[in-house]
Amino acid sequence: MEPHRISAPFWALAGLLFCFALDVRAATFSINPLRVELGARHRTDIVTLKNVAESPLRVQVRAMLWTVADDGRWQLSPSKDLIVTPELAEIPAGQSAQFRVGTLLDPGATEGAYRLLLDELPDLDTAAGSQPQIRVLTQISMPVFVEPAQRTRVPSLGAVSVERGVLAVSLGDSGTQRLDPQNIKVAVLDGAGHVLEQRQTTENYVLPGRSWFLNMKLPAGACERAATVSVTWPDLAGASLIRAITPDAQACEGADSP
């Protein structure tokens, strides 16, 4: 008699069922405030983290310097400019913990930008016989700003180009303080100033002296006639800037109709 053979699909199904049998958990918590602003008259602040899960939460806090590369990518590096206490805490289920964030820095020419990384740490409870778990560890990245000596927010437009039907806009900040995330209006105009395409989009943080890059697909009809782009920041007293578009050699190649 031939031995009983179990087919490969059976093992695949058994493995899938095993995965679903595991207890998949992620930390559940709330945080207040969502960002911290420090200055000469307000050198410390309190961040409250509440554990609303049914199990204890272990958290580590790290202070990072926040910079932006020329291509718009965020860069984080460890920093001692901020003082955070405690750096490690265990929060029982349903309870809260407070973290004090402060700085001894004096206001500089431009705003200092940092991020607090709040990392969930693995649970120390590894009691034998407990149900296997897949832990989905959570990380929160909270912005922290140290105000400059003089605060100005000055939006600016860098190079504007169209390549293969995609409009690329460089949104910068020529002031001393960051531009906050907000809804901005982007309009593409023809040579006579008529609006060809108009959209609302959400701008990310723009740090002083840095840029954030917006890419927007243009329909063929608008791409071929596009001459200038207008960007409006409603939260900054309706500030609006216009810049001429520099077309690429294949500017509208691949542009699609809406």
SSE topology sketch:
Layout: H1 8-21, E1 23-26, E2 29-32, E3 36-38, E4 44-51, E5 57-68, E6 74-78, E7 82-85, E8 88-91, E9 96-103, E10 112-121, E11 133-136, E12 139-146, E13 155-163, E14 166-173, E15 182-189, E16 195-203, E17 211-217, H2 220-225, E18 228-233, E19 239-244, E20 246-247
Parallel strand pairs: 1-11, 3-12, 13-20
Antiparallel strand pairs: 2-4, 4-9, 5-6, 5-8, 5-10, 7-9, 10-12, 13-14, 14-17, 15-16, 15-18, 18-19
Features:
mainly beta; Immunoglobulin-like; four-stranded antiparallel beta sheet; 258 residues; six-stranded mixed beta sheet; 2 helices; 50% strand; disordered N terminus
3D architecture notes:
By secondary structure, this protein is mostly beta strands. The protein folds into two domains: 23-146, Immunoglobulin-like; 155-247, Immunoglobulin-like, CATH 2.60.40.10. It contains two helices and 20 strands. The strands form five sheets. Strands 3, 5, 6, 8, 10 and 12 form a six-stranded mixed β-sheet that branches. Strands 2-4-9-7 form a four-stranded antiparallel β-sheet, with no helix packed on it. Strands 17-14-13-20 form a four-stranded mixed β-sheet, with no helix packed on it. It is elongated and about 65 Å long. Residues 1-26 have low confidence and may be disordered.
Largest sheet: 6 strands, mixed
By CATH, the topology of the largest domain is: Immunoglobulin-like
The H/E string reads HEEEEEEEEEEEEEEEEEHEEE
Full CATH superfamily name of the largest domain: Immunoglobulins
Number of domains: 2
The helix content is under 10%
